[in-house]
Design brief:
about 170 residues, 4-stranded antiparallel beta sheet, 7 helices, alpha+beta, Beta-Lactamase, globular
């Protein structure tokens, strides 16, 4: 069962999440640790989701849990595209568009089959700079997808600070 509030996030809260949940450093090991933490959290909550972490133009972690379908992989792709193009959470972009009454095609002249502004993809943003990737979940209602990613980032600050990393082996 989902263990987070079903309260709708305000636009201010969404902006604060993006400002506060930045990474000190991010590499392939960070992506794997983040994906694994999302997997373990989803499993503990009995959720069926597809999890994807990408950065540097590569998919660094991808896992489809039992109960998901290939459609979830397509949602991951489209939601990630929103983050990577607009440098904000896909949920915030969707909320912004809903408030303005525009579609993503009208707003940005992009194909809605390639860009889906629905919750679940969150920017991998460095403290020292901009967006370098996206972490995405698909399988739940959009606000719950978003809340799952945010809760894992909030509850595991070591992921964002690089504290989880072990000494490198030669």
């Amino acid at each position: 069962m989902v263990q987070f509030s079903m309260t709708t996030f305000t636009m201010e809260e969404l902006e604060q999440q993006e400002e506060q949940l930045r990474f000190a450093t991010f590499d392939h090991d960070t992506a794997i640790a983040l994906g694994d933490t999302l997997y373990r959290t989803a499993r503990e909550r009995n959720l069926a989701v597809t999890i994807d972490v990408r950065a540097f133009g590569q998919i660094l972690f991808h896992l489809a849990m039992a109960g998901t379908t290939p459609d979830n992989d397509q949602w991951v792709e489209r939601k990630s595209n929103v983050v990577l193009r607009f440098h904000c959470a896909s949920y915030r972009m969707g909320r912004r568009l809903a408030e303005s009454g525009e579609t993503i095609a009208e707003h940005s002249f992009v194909d809605p089959m390639t860009f889906s502004p629905f919750g679940g993809s969150f920017p991998v943003r460095l403290k020292s700079g901009g967006v370098i990737g996206a972490v995405t979940v698909s399988g739940l209602p959009q606000e719950e997808d978003h809340a799952l990613v945010v809760s894992v980032l909030q509850d595991n600050p070591g992921l964002r600070e690089g504290a989880f990393m072990q000494k490198k082996r030669f």
